[in-house]
Amino acid sequence: MKNPSQILVIDDEKSNREALTLLLQSAGYQVRAAGSGEEALTILQQTPFEIVITDLFLPGVSGIDILKQVKNDSPYTNVIVITGQASAETAVEAMKAGAFDYITKPFNFEKLKVQIAKAMEKSRLVAENLYLRQQLRGKYKFDNIIGNSSAMQQVFARMERIVHTDSTILILGDSGTGKELVAKAIHYNGARKDKPFMAINCGAIPAELLESELFGHVRGSFTGAIADKPGKFELANNGTIFLDEIGTMPHHLQMKLLRVLQEHEIERVGSGKKIKLNVRVISATNADLEDEVKLGNFREDLYYRLNVIPIHLPPVRDRREDIPLLARHFLQSSCKSMNRPLMTISAEAMKSLQNYDWPGNVREMENVLERTVALTEHETIDVSDLPPNITAQSALDEAAGVNCPRVSADGVNMPATIETIERSMIREAMDLAGGVKARAASLLSINRTTLVEKIKRLKLDF
Question: Is the peptide bond before 106 cis (omega within 30 degrees of 0)?
Fold first, then answer.
C-alpha cells in the first residue's frame, strides 16, 4: 500500500475543509482535500488512502456513495463520516455501509485524532492480513504441486473439479506424499480462501487431549481446564479443518465426529450447549480405512461420511517421470535458503535418484536434497555426493540385480542394500507370476506368508 499515512478529507464547505486539513497536517498526517464527491472519486482512483474523512451530506455524489465505493475498491481503507445533521437513521445507514465511525459537527479534534489512530491501526492490520493471504494463495497454487505424470494430472483434474464445492474430501496416500499441501491448495483456491484453515494431526495428540483440541472445553470440565477454550472446529468456522491421520482417531471420538458431520454442530467438553458451525472437512490417512473398517477399528458410517470425494496421491515410485522435476525444485529451494548459487545434478546422479524407490516419498526427497546441498562443496551434485542407500539401487540395476555392490573405504549401507535387492526380486517374481502371490513365493523359494510380510514391510503395492 502506497502513502500509508495519507488521509483524504472531503467537505463541500471550504472553511471546514481547510480548517480540518490544517489541523491534521499539524498532527503529522499527509492530507489531501476534495470539495465534492465527484472530485474525491477521481482522487481515489489515482491514489490509495488509509483514511477517508467525508461529510455525509454532499451535493451530487454523497458521503454514503463515497463510503460504498471505497469499501468496494479498497477494503483496507477506513472511512470516518462527519455530519452536522445527526440522526439515528443516518448513523445506522453509515455503519451498515461499512463506516469505521460516525461523528457530528461541531466535533472534538482530540477525539477525532484518537479515532483516526484506531482506524489507522485497523487499516494496517487489514492490509497486512490481505498481503499474507495473497502470499498463501501464491504458495499453495496448484502449479506449486510438482508433477507432470499422468497419475498427478489425474489428481490435478479432480482438485480443479472440487475446489469450488463444499464436499467432504478424503486424501489417501503414503506418508510424505504431500497430503496437507493438497488440502491447503484446495482451501486457498476455493470459495473459503479468505476464511480460516485449521490443521490437526490426530495421531500426534494423546487421545485424552484430542477431544478438547477438536471441540474445545469449558472451564472446570477437567483438571487443568482453567478457562473456556474453543477447539479447532470453532476456530475453523466458515473455513476448512484438515484432520490428518484420521485413521488413528479413538473410537469414542469417531462417534462424536460423525455427529458433527451430520448435525453441523459441536459441544465443548463439559458443556451441553450446541454451537452451530459451517466448516468444510478435509481428512487424510496413510492407512487403508476399508481394512480398518473390516477389522472394527474404524466406524463404517464415519468412513462413508468422510469419503465423499477421495483423492489418491501416488507414491513417488509410481511416478518416476516426476523425479527430475521434484529434484530440481528442491535443489533450487535449498540453494536459495542457503544463499548458494544454483547447483546442478549430474546425469548419473539423476539416474540414481530415479532408480531409488523413495519410501519416504516427497518429504524424503526434500530432506535428501537439502542435506546434499549443505554437504556438497562443488557446484554439481554427483553420485558420490548422494547417500549410500540411494546409490545402492543404481549399483544393483547396473549389475542386472546379480552382483552386490562392493564395500568401499566409505562403507556401505547393508540393510538398505538388502531391502533394495528384496524389492527388485519381489517385483520381478510378481510380474512373472501375473500378480499371484503363491506363485511368486514359489519362484522365490519362500512361503507365501513370508512374501506377504515382506511386501507389507517394504510397502510394495501389489
Answer: yes
Strand partners, 327: none
**Extended beta strands in 26-131, E state:** 30-34, 51-55, 78-83, 101-104
Q: Is residue 407 pLDDT above 70, yes or no?
A: no
**79 phi, psi to nearest 5 deg:** -115, 125
Length of the chain: 462
Q: In angstroms, rounded to a whole number, what is the distance separating the alpha carbons of residues 27 and 201? A: 51
Q: Which set of grid coordinates corresponds to residue 204?
A: 500426534
The residues, ordered by sequence, that sit 6+ positions from 394 with a Cβ below 8 Å of its Cβ are 348, 351, 352, 355, 356, 383
Phi-psi region of 361 (alpha: psi -120 to 50; beta: other; left: phi over 0): left
Mean of all residue pLDDT scores within the chain: 86
Q: How far is CA 292 from the centre of its chain?
A: 28
Region 232-255 average pLDDT: 95
Distance CA 436, CA 448 (A): 10
For 318-424, strand residue ranges (E) read: 344-345, 380-381
**Residue at grid coordinates 469505521:** 100
- CB of 388 closer than 8 Å to CB of 413: yes
Q: How far is CA 432 from CA 114, 169, 256, in A?
A: 81, 37, 48
| Measured distance CA(312)–CA(173) in Å, rounded | 6
In this prediction, residues 153-172 reach a mean pLDDT of 92
Q: What is the dihedral angle through the alpha carbons of 285, 331, 420, 287, rounded to the nearest 10 degrees?
A: 0
Phi and psi at residue 248, in whole multiples of 5°?
-90, 0
pLDDT at 401: 47
Q: Which three cell numbers stand for residue 257?
A: 465426529
**pTM, entire model:** 0.61
Q: Which residues contact 346 (CB under 8 A, 6 or more apart)?
A: 380, 381, 382, 383
Other residues' Cβ atoms within 10 Å of the Cβ of residue 295: 9
